[in-house]
Amino acid sequence: MIGVKDKRFGKLGRKRIWPSILMFGLFVCVCVAAFSFLIYLCAVCIMGTKISGHYEEALQVSAVFSELLDNGETAEEAAAQMQNYVVGRKDICLTDQSGRILLVTGDSQPDFDLALKFDIKQDVAAVADSKSGLVSGQTFASMFRMPAKDIFAGAFEFDDQGKTRAEWMDETIIRQDYWLRAPLKNDDYLLYIKYNLQAQRQDIAYVYILGFAAIIILLIPVILLFVNTLRSIIMQRRMAQLIYLDTVTGGRNWLYFRNSGHRILTRLRNSRKAFAMVDLHLERYNNYRACYGVKAGEELLEAMSGFLSARVGKNEAFARNEGADFGFLIQCAGENEQEYRDYCVKRVRSLLAELTGLRPDQKIRFHAGVDLIPPYIAEDGKWYHARKNVDIDELYTYANAARHESDETQEQRIAFFDQDMLGRQKWERWVEDNVEAALRNEEFQVYLQPKYNPATGKLVGAEALVRWVSLSTGLITPGHFIPIFERTGFITKLDDYMISHVARLQAEWMIQGKKMIPISVNVSRAHFAQEGLAEHICQLVDAYGPSHELIELEVTESAFFDDKDILVETVKQLKAYGFRVSMDDFGAGYSSLNSLKDIPLDVLKLDGEFFNGDEDGVRRGEIVVKEAIQLAKNLNMSVVAEGIERKEQVDFLASQDCDMIQGFYYAKPMPIDEFEKKVEKDA
Ligand code: C2E
Ligand code: MG
Ligand code: MG
User: Fold this and answer.
1) Which residue has the higher pLDDT, 129 or 341?
2) Tens-place pLDDT, residues 232-279
3) Residue 136: per-residue pLDDT
């Protein structure tokens, strides 16, 4: 899912240039309209002035004509006589109210289809002439549509053919016949008088000069707005680039990946396609930076980014997440899950191989975690729905979790995510979050598992085993948290806690005069690697004061593969303090007889695995156990057999002179109070 924050950034990142362009276009249109209107107004104004002159004259003509009609003259006679009273010959046209022509003098008549729009005076009506029509037929202003060069070029290259410039400018260049309607006293008739509208060169020049001035004035804001629009488009592009820029690699960043990945996966046409979220990880990046320098490290990441951008296909995306982790959303070919997996493995493997080649002289290793995203089929079983609730970060987290899971030493490891993995990781997190509080609340309880002497059947010892009785989850066995503690290092605190509690228990028994039973406590391998462990344990035990011989410390066999010198030293010191030390789980891993030679141990704990397996395995196990017991005896060690569940195993161990047996055959690990009852009965 895309969060509110992302949406906000996403909006900034979108390259929407059309609002700026639209605004600019709108402004230009307004300017053009204003310009045209200005020119039109100017033209109308000039022509209106001329027509007004004609109209004044027409009023006089119509007055004469009305007078003649009033004197009883016919229309024809009035028309003929009228010429005697007006200056210059005037063509007139008389119509009835319906516009039917009754009388026309001259060779043309009004063209009533071309009535002219004319706003100078309300009651003035003008009509085009049937012979000459109009330049454009619509308005007087249109008569000004003359090429500017006719006026200006001529004016600049003016050669006087006997004329002054003023005379030349006064020259009439437009002549246009038209008819003006003049009011008559007699309502039966309408009188039209023909006039010739003339425009001089200077009239048109005025319009053009005004036009140029207007263009220049309007051009300034247009240019400013254009520059501003251009700047805002460039700024927007830069901002989009910045928002999506990964400053380390110079490529796209995680925000971009989140947005574009979401877009790809939620596209309807992609719902039938399978995808895979891949976490590509460069191993030991910090070490690389430490050895080759920060700059070289970043250059390597940049090279990776460049390489991946050349490999990213349509419907795919990639970006660096953090450190040396890249998220890569790939589209998987295939028909079923196995085919998607195969495709994915092939593709990722070849990517990893090529990435490794980025630095041929240096050893760089890549690992990948993959979370497969199968085709989407909605709850109603239809495929034609788009994926919903896609959360790129969650998908990446799964891929990342998969990468974390498997063995890091392997070359080119590709691990696929599954739900168990998530469960494990969630559990780990829960453990890590709750462990400190659990220690404070004493949620860790000491359980004791008795050890019996098979010869006498008496309880002769015990092993302290931890149980986490969580207030929220209930009882948790060590297998669920010890490995996590070992990874996080918390195991040392737990060991201290157990040693202290066992010491306290022993001290209590001593004070209460109870039978003293030696108890062994597990000490983790991580703890054994620490210097000064013997003194530390000594202090923990001495805080309560029980006898050191009553406490035995169990070290797992695998600890013997660590730094042997420290181990030998610690064991010697522990022994010097009077503690007993045992080798736990002997035979569970790669047994090293050499360890027995080098380390002066007191007890050998044989792993229960010796007694498991098929008939032949058990028989062979018994041979090994027999020899191991013999070996331990020769080395002055006592032997404890663990995980013993059946009577025949007990009988066999008894026959081999095994000192103690610890197993479900006798008893399971139990709480202290239960153990104390058992001691009263069996010890
Ligand atoms: P471990 O020290 O080898 O302890 C013996 C384990 O074997 C115990 O498991 C015990 O319950 C189990 N066991 C005993 N008898 C039988 C049997 O007859 N059959 C079977 N199947 N199992 C038997 P648990 O208590 O679950 O402990 C597992 C491991 O966790 C221990 O192995 C030890 O390595 C570790 N652990 C337990 N408590 C502590 C602790 O306090 N500190 C440290 N560092 N590790 C501990
Ligand atoms: Mg143990
Ligand atoms: Mg053991």
Assistant:
1) 341
2) 888 888 888 888 999 999 999 999 999 999 999 999 999 999 999 999
3) 42
Residue nearest to atom 43 of ligand 1 (CA): 522
CA distance 499 to 155: 115
Give yes or no for a contact between 352 and 340, defined as CB atoms under 8 angstroms apart: no
Is 266:273 a contact under the CB 8 Å cutoff? no
Here the tokens at position 187 are 């309502």
The pLDDT of 124-153, averaged and rounded, is 59
Of 34 and 551, the structure prediction assigns the larger pLDDT to 551
DSSP string, 150-188: HHHHHHHT---SS--HHHHHH-EEEEEEEEEEE--SSTT
Average pLDDT, the chain: 86
pLDDT tens profile 327-354: 999 999 999 999 999 999 999 999 999 9
Domains of the chain (ranges plus CATH)?
A: 12-214 (no CATH), 254-417 (3.30.70.270), 448-682 (3.20.20.450)
Beta 638-642 vs 474-476: how paired, if at all?
Answer: unpaired
**Contacts of residue 657, Cβ cutoff 8 Å, sequence gap at least 6:** 629, 633
CA 449 / ligand 1 centre spacing (Å): 9
Ranking 212-216, 354-358, 527-531, 570-574 by mean pLDDT, the lowest is 527-531
CB 638 within 8 Å of CB 660:
yes
> Which ligand has its closest atom nearest to the C-alpha of 520?
2
d(CA 639, CA 650): 13
Confidence of residue 9 (pLDDT cuts 50, 70, 90): low
Q: Is 606 in the pocket of ligand 1 (CB under 6 A)?
A: no
Residue with tokens 């016919």: 74
Q: Is 587 close to ligand 1, i.e. is its CB under 6 Å away?
A: no
User: Measured in Å, how far apart are the chain's first and last C-alpha atoms?
Assistant: 64
563 CB-side CA count, 13 A? 10
- Cα angle vertex 409, ends 408, 412, to 5°? 80
User: How far away, in angstroms, is 25 Cα from ligand 2 center?
Assistant: 83
Burial class for 301, CB neighbours closer than 10 Å (0-12, 13-18, 19+) = buried
